């Protein structure tokens, strides 16, 4: 006999309790070498540790799958130690950059000119080949005899031939 109330009573005390305090979860993809560290970092964040306090994560032991230690560099907040600021404060050698740009433009112009020259030569060759092909087709048409002449020659050699003029014309079209 079916249980009309379901099994709600039997599972009331065994409801699943989430392992995460921050709410619902979702599946993500991370590199295997970083999976354990990422999970540990997420668990510490879930427990309430602020991201600034994560410098202690360096003492987390990995499973040994990452044989080389990762380089972690502390970035200073001071203006003098920031390499981007140092780079932008140095004067740029604009003359050198402009010379390189002019060389690149000259190379581009040479390539464009040579590609135009090659394209024109190819067009000339294609035109020559087309004209030769048209001449060969015209020569073939001139060398084929008329269908009526072929039929009369056939009947001269084989008096009982059943070929018709239409048959001979079809054969000549196939030859062309």
Question: What secondary-structure arrangement, pairings included, does this model have?
Answer:
Blueprint: H1 8-11, H2 32-46, H3 83-89, H4 94-143, H5 147-157, H6 165-175
Helix pairs in contact: 5-6
**Count of helical segments?**
6
What is the H-and-E element order? HHHHHH
Instruction: Work out the number of β strands.
Output: 0
Q: What is the rounded distance between the termini?
A: 88 Å
The residue fraction in helices comes out at 55-70%
* Radius of gyration using CA atoms only: 44 Å
Shape: elongated
The biggest beta sheet, please?
none
Summary of the model, kept short:
The protein has 176 residues and is mostly helical.
Comma- or semicolon-separated keywords:
single chain; mainly alpha
Can you walk me through this structure?
This protein has 6 helices and no strands. The protein is 56% helix and 0% strand. The chain is elongated, with a radius of gyration of 44 Å. It has helices at 8-11, 32-46, 83-89, 94-143, 147-157, 165-175. Helix 5 (147-157) packs across helix 6 (165-175). With 176 residues, the chain is an all-alpha fold.
């Amino acid at each position: 006999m079916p249980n009309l109330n379901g099994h709600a009573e039997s599972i009331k005390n065994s409801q699943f309790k989430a392992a995460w305090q921050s709410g619902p979860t979702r599946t993500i993809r991370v590199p295997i070498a970083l999976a354990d560290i990422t999970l540990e970092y997420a668990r510490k964040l879930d427990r309430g540790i602020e991201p600034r306090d994560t410098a202690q994560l360096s003492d987390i032991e990995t499973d040994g799958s990452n044989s080389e230690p990762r380089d972690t560099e502390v970035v200073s907040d001071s203006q003098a130690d920031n390499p981007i600021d140092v780079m932008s404060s140095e004067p740029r050698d604009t003359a050198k950059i402009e010379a390189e740009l002019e060389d690149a433009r000259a190379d581009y112009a040479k390539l464009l000119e040579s590609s135009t020259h090659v394209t024109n030569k190819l067009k000339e060759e294609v035109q020559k080949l087309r004209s030769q092909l048209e001449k060969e087709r015209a020569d073939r048409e001139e060398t084929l005899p008329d269908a009526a002449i072929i039929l009369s020659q056939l009947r001269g050699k084989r008096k009982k031939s059943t070929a018709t003029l239409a048959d001979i014309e079809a054969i000549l079209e196939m030859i062309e």
